[in-house]
């Protein structure tokens, strides 16, 4: 678990990264995800209840809902930090939990931005962003430095390589974590509660950063959040979870206009009466 946290889950679902496999940092694509009848128990607690969900390649997809509904647990299944008691997840139609080695022929890169940002306080901003590149030795040092500069510029932190993490605001830490995840050009990037502990202004800046990134990347983006306004602003589609199940899926417009009483209750509680106009 620590190794996965250490590297922001950068790597491959299906092949172990040993530092020798060639990596094309310029070739990024989106991946499709299909979740099929997924169930997860923790003791007697049924956390995920027959979850069915499809996320299209290249889209920004938000999973919303109040705390304790299974959102983060579902995200952990997508990156194989948890294993289901039943059901399957398919990435580009390949089952990720299958015991058949022949079913795991596809390969792609993925990364995750954790709620805590998970930066190393002993490293500078630049060292955090370039950590995976240097450890996996996928390119020469000169290129590593160029990638660090490029990714920091993409998140609005150009020239901040030498700052220590202790000098960063909460919003800046989130953006450094995003830059670190982008360093290996993931085909799939996942965010766990990216707006947690951020003020409204910083949340808006983060939302615009994620939207801007979609203009220059082809990857699939999956975001778990309880922040409905954030989800409505950045998503192509949204799924709402309640009690361990997916109760509604739709575009932001469709979610705002939903007649589902669970969705309506969540909307009015979290946005103080947003209308569906």
Attribute tags:
single chain; 277 residues; alpha/beta; Rossmann fold; seven-stranded mixed sheet; four-stranded antiparallel sheet; 32% helix; 23% strand; globular
Structure, described:
- This protein is of the alpha/beta class and 277 residues long.
- It has a single domain (2-14, 29-271), classed as P-loop containing nucleotide triphosphate hydrolases (Rossmann fold), CATH 3.40.50.
- The protein has 10 helices and 11 strands.
- The protein has helices spanning 2-6, 71-78, 125-129, 131-136, 141-154, 170-182, 200-214, 228-234, 252-256, 261-271, and strands at 11-12, 33-42, 45-55, 60-64, 86-91, 94-95, 109-113, 188-192, 220-225, 237-242, 245-250.
- The strands form 2 sheets. Strands 1-7-8-9-4-10-11 form a 7-stranded mixed beta sheet, sandwiched between helices.
- A hairpin with a 2-residue loop joins β5 and β6.
- α5 (141-154) crosses α6 (170-182) and α6 (170-182) packs parallel to α7 (200-214).
């Amino acid at each position: 678990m620590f190794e996965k946290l250490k590297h922001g889950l950068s790597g491959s679902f299906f092949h172990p990264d040993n530092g020798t496999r060639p990596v094309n940092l310029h070739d990024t694509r989106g991946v499709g995800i299909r979740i099929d009848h997924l169930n997860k128990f923790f003791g007697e607690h049924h956390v995920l209840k027959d979850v069915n969900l499809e996320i299209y390649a290249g889209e920004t997809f938000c999973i919303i809902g109040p705390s304790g509904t299974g959102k983060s647990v579902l995200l952990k299944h997508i990156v194989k930090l948890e294993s289901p008691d039943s059901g399957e997840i398919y990435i580009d139609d390949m089952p990720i939990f299958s015991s058949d080695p022949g079913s795991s022929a596809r390969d792609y890169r993925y990364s995750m931005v954790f709620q805590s940002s998970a930066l190393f306080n002993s490293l500078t901003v630049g060292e955090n962003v370039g950590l995976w590149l240097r450890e996996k030795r996928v390119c020469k040092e000169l290129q590593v430095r160029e990638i660090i500069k490029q990714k920091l510029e993409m998140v609005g932190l150009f020239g901040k390589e030498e700052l220590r993490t202790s000098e960063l605001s909460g919003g800046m830490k989130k953006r450094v974590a995003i830059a670190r995840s982008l360093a290996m050009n993931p085909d799939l990037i996942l965010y766990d509660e990216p707006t947690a502990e951020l003020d409204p202004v910083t949340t808006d800046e983060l939302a615009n950063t994620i939207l801007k990134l979609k203009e220059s990347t082809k990857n699939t983006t999956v975001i778990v959040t309880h922040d409905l306004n954030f989800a409505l602003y950045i998503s192509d589609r949204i799924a709402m979870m309640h009690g361990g199940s997916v109760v509604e899926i739709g575009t932001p417009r469709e979610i705002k206009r939903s007649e589902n009483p669970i969705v309506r209750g969540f909307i009015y509680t979290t946005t103080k009466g947003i209308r569906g106009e």
